[in-house]
Amino acid sequence: MKADPRGVLTGIHYLDGDHAACEGALAAGCRYIAGYPITPSTEVVERYASRIPCVGGIFMQMEDEIASSIAIQGAVWAGAKAMTVTSGPGFSLMMEHIGLAVMTEVPCVFINVQRGGPSTGLPTLPAQSDMMQARWGSHGDYEMIALCPNSAQECFDLIITAFNLSERFRTPVMFMMDECIGHMTEKVVIPKAEEISITPRQYTKKSPIEYKAYEPIKDLIPEMAPIGKGYNFHITGLTHDEKGYPAMNEETQHKLVTRLMDKIRNYKKEIIIIEEEYLDDAEVVVMSYGITSRVAEKAMIDARKEGIKVGKARLKTVWPFAEEYVFELSKKVKAIIVPELNAGQIVREVERAAKGNCEVISVPHLGGAVHKPSVIFDAIKRGANRGK
Q1: Rounded distance, CA 135 to CA 226, Å?
Q2: 310-323 burial string, b = 16+ CB within 10 Å, else e?
Q3: The domain made up of 275-384 is a member of CATH 2.30.30.40
Q4: Predicted pLDDT of residue 54
C-alpha cells in the first residue's frame, strides 16, 4: 500500500467498515491508538498497526480497556490526535474515563463496534444496544456527540467528521458502528489529502503567563496549550476553575457544567447531520440509523410501490438528539417508524420530542441478525393507516 505523506491511500478500494474507519482516522491525522482486542472491532487496530510503519504513529495494545481509555487522553495532552476502539463489554469499562475526558475537555474519539449483550452476549453478531450508554453511561450531567455510519464509505467519511468535531468542540466523540457495518466489505472512495477538510487543534496564542487552561475563548471553548513550550497548568477531574484548580463549590459547579453542556447544545445545527429523502409529501417517516437504515430501504421501496407516502430521516448524528427537528416533523406526518437493533432506545427520544403530535411506532429487534424488511414494511403500513 502506497500512501501520500499525510497517510491517505487515495483511490478506489474495497474495504470493510473496520478497515475504512482506520483509513479515515489516519486521514484525519490520528497518530495514536491504544486498545485491547475485542470482537468485532479488532480489525480497526490490526489495520492501524500494519499501516503506521508507513505513515508514522503508535499503536499500543494495553492490558485492558480501562488502560486504553486513559492512555489516549495522555497522548492528546502530549499533542497527538488519538482514539480507542472497543465493543460492548470494553465500552462499559471505559465509562469513567469518558466522563474524565468530558470534564477535562480532551478531544478524542471512541469507536464502539456494537454487538449483542448484556455481558459477553453475542461477540460476533450485530446489535445497536449501546446507544443510550453512549449518551448516559458516565455519571454526572454532560452532553455527548455520537455519530452512526451505515456503510463502509461513511466509516471513512464520518470518522473524519468525528475527529473534526472533537477538535472543534474539545470533547470526546463516540463513533457508534455495529458488527454488520464493521464487517461489511464495500467500495470506498478515498479522495486526495488536499480534498479532505481537517480541523486542526486549537492552540493558544497567549503567553504562558497569560494562559488559563479552561478560559473559554470562542464559542464557550478553551484553547489548548502546546506541549514543551513552557505552559504549566493543572488538569483534574474535580470541579475546577478557569486555571484548572479544584474549586468544589456550588457556584463553580454551575458555571463549569453549564458551559460544558452549552458548548454542544448551542451548536446543534452545526453538529446534527440527518439524511432526508421523500419528506415533501410524506405521511409516514422511517427514522433509523446504522445497519437498520439499510434494511429499512427495502421496506420503504416496497411501501412506495404500494402507493404509501413514506419518507426517510436517517440519523447520522444520534447525539445530541435532534429533538427540535423531530418535533417539527411530527406535526406534518401521521407516524414515525423507529426500527432499532435493541429493545427500543432511541424511539423513546422520538416519542419525547414528538410530544404526541403523531404516532411513534417502535420496531425493536434484540440483535443477532438484522430485521426482516417485511417487519418494517408492516409497521409503515400500520402508520399509514392511522386514522382510517
Answers
A1: 30
A2: bbbbbbbbbbbbbb
A3: no
A4: 86
- Cis bond leading into 320, ω under 30°? yes
- Three state DSSP letters for the chain: CCCCCCCCCCEEEEEEHHHHHHHHHHHHCEEEEEECCCCCCHHHHHHHHHHHHHHCCEEEECCCHHHHHHHHHHHHHCCCEEEEEECHHHHHHCHHHHHHHHHHCCCEEEEEEEEECCCCCEEEEECCCCHHHHHHCCCCCCCCEEECCCCHHHHHHHHHHHHHHHHHHCCEEEEEEEHHHHHCEEEEEECCHHHCCCCCCCECCCCCCCCCCCCEEECCEECECCCCCCCCCCCCCCCECCCCCECCCHHHHHHHHHHHHHHHHCCHHHHCCEEEECCCCCCEEEEECCHHHHHHHHHHHHHHHCCCCEEEEEECEEECCCHHHHHHHHCCCCEEEEEECCCCCHHHHHHHHHCCCCEEEEEECCCCCCCCHHHHHHHHHHHHCCCC
11-195 carries CATH number 3.30.2380.10: no
Average pLDDT for residues 247-275, to the nearest whole number?
Answer: 97
Measured CA to CA, the distance from residue 239 to residue 257 in angstroms comes to: 9
pTM for the whole structure: 0.96
pLDDT tens across 28-71, in order?
A: 999 999 999 999 999 999 999 999 998 999 999 999 999 999 99
**Domains in the chain: boundaries:** 11-195, 216-268, 275-384
User: For residue 213, what are the contacts with CB-CB under 8 A and spacing of at least 6?
Assistant: 222, 225, 233, 234, 235, 242, 243, 244
CA atoms within 13 A on the CB side of 73: 25
What are the pLDDT digits (tens) for 175-217? 999 999 999 999 999 999 999 999 999 999 999 999 999 999 9
pLDDT number for residue 116: 96
